[in-house]
Amino acid sequence: MLAFFGATAWFTKIPAYRNAELAAHWPPPHSARKGGEKVKNTAGAAPEDLPQGAKPKFPLIIFSHGLGGSRSVYSSVCGEFASYGFVVIAPEHRDGSGARSVVNYGPETSFLWEEVLPTIRKQTPTSPTNPNFWSADGERAKRLGRKPARAATEAIHNSLNSDPVEESSPRRKYIHRRKRALTFTASKKRKYRTVDYLWPKDNPYDTNPTNKIDTDLRTAQINMRKAELTEIYKAIQVLNSGDGEILSQMNLLKKGAAGASSRGLDGVNWEKWQDRIHIDNVTVAGHSFGAASTIEVLRDPEQIFGQVPGSLQGIIYDPWGAAIQQPESQAVKIRTPLLGINSEAFMHWADNFEMVMKVFEEATKNNENCWMMTVKGTVHISQSDFTVVYPRLCALLLKASADPERAIDININASLEFLKRVMPANIAKWNRVDEEGLLDVRVMSWEDENRFERRPTESGIAKTLKAQKGLRSRIQPQLPTILRRRWNRRQKGGMEEEIWMHLKPGEAHSLENGEPLEILKRTKAG
């Protein structure tokens, strides 16, 4: 399988220009769909209330990947947002949740293992939120049924403690755990280390609907993600101040470094970035485990941004409910606009759906601008690049029936419609999305059992959909979707054929009576 993906995707490139300059012109009044391809290079009129020659500022989106993901596997989503005038930051988390991340060392870095391994302390952390939670003390490792070396490995992978151990430490310089496909290397010769996917101990598949989640591991990973986002926001502030050269000098992803672009950051005019980002207007988004991370950021934005931004909103794509933590107090609640877009495969996962609905129940009590919907015929990876690169494979094996490109379009258009409604008016007016009325679709009737027609067997829950009738519809799902979309455009509506709306402002009764959860539970039992 790895050979197949390597052979077919090795030469796949992301359609983007490296180190491209920021657009210096204001957008035209229409999108490319209405005005044609020429609008991409057409300048629009600047707002009258700004000084002559003022350059546009761009709102900020921070996108967090899911388990097994990376900074590049959501290029379709991130690229679409960027084309609509957003500065999109897609970090590659180094918490052991990504497929692999390469950490390069600078020339001044010492490569002795003793400077990488955290201090072995004798202490008992009281909570997973404690930054020393993964400290590798022997007593706690014994209590968890783990060897001290295992606890030390977890500490390294999560990078939650950076104090050096004594030089007399007997720890080996390298750890390589072949059984769990887990590697952690720090080498003088290579001058980099790799952080691979971290499998939970004794429960490697805790993402399976029938398994319990490794709460300790996932909580620590979310905590590290929050710490990474804090540093990212600091870097964005430096970039927006016009001092990007400082970041360029610190950058290690340059020619000759592992996993780096041969161009690095050469040729970037950092002064042109000064005051070009709306750093006080932030959208936090994420997919799957990244959506769970997004929820935690929205609950306590001051921890990440120093203060609550002037405008803050969240978008969660197919959230993994089991990783969502319970709020620590009434003060730590979501108080911002929130959009949730599920895949149909995850909608049929009753326990997960219930947890996500509870998040929206929390959010709607503090902010009315909340929407939750499901895109029909989609699976969990439909919001990544995977279904776009392998449409036939996903249709055949996962029974995804939605046209992959159309599924991305629905996710993006719904997100842009959401942002146009919740962002400040002076920013939202530059959002050139051609609204399809996705947020205006009526809330579905829970008595309508048609939505369960493609519910898979228990073994396929959250992974696949029930196969459609007819081989052609399995291997070529685009044709019926294209015809349906053309019909909807002629009718100026009909989005009910492509999405199910679960919640929107003014219609939170579905949360209050709990009816959808009961129906899902009964369906699960049946």
Q: How is the topology of this model organized?
A:
Blueprint: H1 2-9, H2 32-35, E1 58-64, H3 75-83, E2 87-89, E3 100-104, H4 138-143, H5 148-158, E4 175-177, E5 182-184, E6 192-196, H6 215-240, H7 244-250, E7 277-287, H8 289-299, H9 301-305, E8 311-317, E9 338-343, H10 344-347, H11 350-364, E10 370-375, H12 386-389, H13 391-397, H14 404-422, H15 425-428, H16 471-475, H17 478-491, E11 499-503, H18 509-512, H19 515-525
Parallel strand pairs: 1-2, 1-7, 7-8, 8-9, 9-10
Antiparallel strand pairs: 3-6, 4-5, 10-11
Helix pairs in contact: 3-14, 6-7, 11-19
Short overview:
The chain has 526 residues and is of the alpha/beta class.
Write structural notes for this entry.
- Strand 4 and strand 5 (182-184) form a beta hairpin.
- By secondary structure, the chain is α/β, with parallel strands linked by helices.
- Strands 2-1-7-8-9-10-11 form a 7-stranded mixed sheet, with helices on both faces. A two-stranded antiparallel sheet has the order 3-6.
- The protein is built from 19 helices and 11 strands.
- It starts with a helix and ends with a helix.
- The radius of gyration is 24 Å and the shape is globular.
- The chain folds into 2 domains: 57-96 and 218-254 and 270-439 and 449-525, Rossmann fold; 100-196, no CATH class.
- Its EC number is 3.1.1.47.
- Pfam families: PAF-AH_p_II.
